[in-house]
Write a structure and sequence with these properties.
Blueprint: H1 14-26, H2 31-50, H3 54-64, H4 71-84, E1 85-88, E2 95-107, H5 119-132, E3 139-147, H6 156-171, E4 191-203, H7 218-237, E5 246-248, E6 252-253, H8 254-281, E7 288-297, E8 299-309, E9 317-322, H9 333-343, E10 348-351, E11 356-357, E12 369-370, E13 376-377
Helix pairs in contact: 1-2, 1-3, 1-4, 2-4, 3-4, 4-6, 5-7, 8-9
């Protein structure tokens, strides 16, 4: 997904210096020049992070959007890198400690759990990560809570603090205890993500991941790792999500893993929506109608898919397909959505040509979804829908 930086306020004048250095790095024409700009930008960003000067960083990121070339990406890359990874001195040499996330795509008829992970299950998850995802040189520690996305740190400073606490846990050969009272409530939605968060430590220069220790082509090795993680890690995570169909994505460094999961969730939510409607309304997919509409704000911002039963005009459910920075009405997004709906055996697929508004419910904030007439409606399940407990596989 396109980067979605944390909510920002105006910051200090140091922001101008951050933008200048990022612009220099983005416009560099040689590796030697890159090294200079990277060193200077790293020192400047590190200073702001250590001073907890979120305002300066946020203001710089805002200004970088209007700067030339790839200035924003250069600055965002540096901020994220220094937020999610730190160097510590030790008697065994410099140690790199990196925050990571193991995302889980999940859906269900009841509220998806976000909760403390029991010690035995937490240790089992840690064993599977160490054995199948991270390198043989890595030490890891986990937070003992299964987070919803809205429960993750909301700022760079909070993310760095979490990393530092996990680094302490690694040195103490334990895991990090999260007080559930400090975690906000998770939203009650049909399809969402859950996150296992931790940190790994390696001696600087050693490999991070299992796929870095093989001679197999990198992408093939990553896919092999993902397959094993889904099998072995899935068995460890399954007791946390009994009754909730789920799919594991590849654990990676924190920001990258979250973006990859955001991307994967777009397709996952379509199949989950069809399965959900079949479960609660007993309507087979071939009797469903899916209406695809592009919603416009400052340009095309997202597609919304409204689901109806048969030829009914009422929207019973919907899902959102947000666009990434390089997607628009001239990219094959609609074709991908249609292919996923066909793969889910949806009977009728309607593509609306008109530009639809980004409408939300004034009372609850839920997005409105299009019906076959192009009306943007609040989704409401039929009165006889069975939304009670049910064990789903």
């Amino acid at each position: 997904m396109s980067r979605a930086p944390f909510r920002r306020k105006s910051g200090a004048r140091e922001a101008n210096q951050l933008v200048r250095l990022a612009e220099g790095l983005a416009s560099s024409k040689s590796r030697a020049e890159d090294v200079y700009w990277e060193r200077e930008l790293e020192a400047a960003v590190t200073l702001q992070l250590e001073n907890n000067d979120e305002d300066a960083i946020n203001r710089a990121l805002d200004k970088a959007h209007d700067a030339p070339d790839a200035t924003f990406d250069a600055l965002a890359d540096m901020v994220e890198s220094l937020t999610e990874s730190i160097m510590l001195d030790s008697e065994h040499g410099p140690q790199r400690v990196t925050l990571f996330c193991a995302p889980i795509l999940v859906w269900g008829r009841n509220q998806i759990p976000a909760k403390t992970i029991p010690k035995a299950q937490l240790q089992n998850i840690a064993v599977q990560l160490s054995a199948h995802v991270f390198s043989s040189k890595a030490k890891i520690a986990l937070a003992d809570f299964m987070f919803a996305p809205d429960q993750l740190p909301h700022s760079y400073s909070q993310s760095r603090e979490l990393l530092q606490n996990l680094g302490t846990a690694i040195r103490e050969r334990t895991h990090l205890t999260i007080d559930p009272k400090t975690v906000e409530d998770a939203p009650d939605v049909v399809c969402d993500m859950r996150m296992i968060v931790g940190a790994f430590q390696v001696t600087e220069g050693e490999p991070f991941y299992a796929w870095q220790e093989t001679t197999t082509p990198v992408e093939e090795a990553r896919q092999n790792t993902l397959g094993i993680w889904r099998s072995q890690g899935g068995n460890a995570i399954k007791p946390l999500l009994v009754g909730f169909p789920h799919e594991l994505t590849l654990p990676r460094s924190f920001f990258s893993a979250c973006r990859d999961a955001d991307m994967a969730s777009r397709a996952y939510s379509i199949g989950a929506s069809v399965s959900y409607l079949e479960a609660v309304t007993h309507t087979t997919p071939d009797k469903l109608t899916a209406v695809i509409g592009g919603c416009w704000g400052n340009g095309l911002e997202e597609y919304r898919i409204g689901f109806a039963i048969g030829e009914d005009d009422d929207v019973v459910h919907g899902c959102v397909w947000p666009l990434v920075s390089d997607e628009g009405d001239d990219t094959p997004v609609v074709e991908e959505i249609e292919a996923l709906l066909r793969a889910a055996n949806v009977g009728t697929i309607i593509l609306l040509e008109e530009q639809l508004p980004l409408e939300f419910c004034d009372d609850c904030g839920a997005p409105h979804f299009p019906n076959r007439e192009g009306e943007m409606l609040h989704a409401h399940l039929p009165e006889d829908a069975e939304t009670g407990a049910m064990h789903l596989h």
